[in-house]
Amino acid sequence: MNVTVEPFVTKSIEETRQYLAKQTGLVGFFATMGYLHHGHRNLLKKARQECDVVVLSIFINPLQFAANEDLDRYPRDLERDLAMAKEEKVDLVFCPTPDMMYPKPILTQVSVKGITDLLCGASRPGHFDGVATVVTKLFNIVQPDRAYFGLKDAQQVAVINRMVDDLNIPVEIVPCPIIREADGLAMSSRNVYLSEEERKQAVILYQTLQQAQKWINAGLNDTKALRQRVEDTVNACPLADIDYVEILKYPELTPVEDIKGHTIIVALAVKFGNTRLIDNVLLNSEGKPV
Ligand code: AMP
């Protein structure tokens, strides 16, 4: 008989620590802001396959939102998230309140320099300090052996990897592939903000990334020319408003003129109305997806 066990759900840091102190084996951790979709599910499945204890955190971290961003309207559905956690046999769901994570004004911040100034860091100043700080706190609370992060946020993966490396945090970062809708749009909790027409046109991000890969495979190696073509393709889409188009070395996130021989990221951030979508493709030195 297949018995489904309810996950242990707690808001408390103390209870989380007590629960984990009693567990044995490899602890896998997946940090989210909730409103879970199939992309998140995939990471939970991977963690379940690879680890003895699976910990999911659900926390909309105010520290990583600027005053003009969508903190208050970020979608929430804890009941549905807990149902998915149960289906995926998560052991512990840690869903603290902001007051529990930040009981007093925070005087300590973790700040990864350089690679946080560009891409999403340029349009969202302070965002990655908020991310690095909360992930450090979560790592200290959960003390996982492995932590799973999606490459949809490839810059975040680079930042967390560097932070873990620089600060000798004893955790293995496991990057996971981008999970997409049938038409190619990268799954995101923020996709619910899109109007019907915006949702249709949002597929331009993936289509352009695929096209970029074709251009590269056909021998276009000059990043300036490639970037121009990518911008022109996205701009031809009436509702798309480009935030950035960048082609950089990955994970260094440094500029490169000729992509030949490098692992690169083609990264896009595009606004549709008030909704900002991001997507990317990582290509190895042979132009094959990583
Ligand atoms: P979020 O709750 O949106 O902050 O995402 C939590 C984690 O899930 C991050 O590591 C994301 O990169 C990852 N994630 C979100 N959407 C996807 C997706 N479509 N494919 C793969 N990973 C994802």
Q: Could you describe the 3D structure shown?
A:
The chain is α/β, with parallel strands linked by helices. The chain contains ten helices and nine strands. It has helices spanning 13-21, 38-50, 78-87, 98-101, 120-123, 127-142, 154-166, 196-201, 204-217, 223-235; strands spanning 8-10, 27-32, 53-58, 92-94, 146-150, 172-176, 240-249, 264-272, 275-283. It has a six-stranded parallel beta sheet, with helices on both faces. Helix 7 links the parallel strand 5 and strand 6 (172-176). Helix 6 crosses helix 7 and helix 9 runs antiparallel to helix 10 (223-235). The longest helix has 16 residues, at 127-142. The structure holds adenosine monophosphate.
- Unreliable spans are none
Distance linking N and C termini: 40 Å
- Hetero groups: adenosine monophosphate
Mean pLDDT: 97
Estimate what percentage of residues fall within beta strands.
15-25%
Q: What's the arrangement of strands in the largest beta sheet?
A: 1-4-3-2-5-6
| SS-derived structural category | alpha/beta
Order of helices and strands: EHEHEHEHHHEHEHHHEEE
The number of helical elements comes to 10
Largest sheet report: 6 strands, parallel
Shape: globular
Radius of gyration, whole Å = 19 Å
Number of strands: 9
Q: Approximately how much helix is present in the residues? A: 25-40%
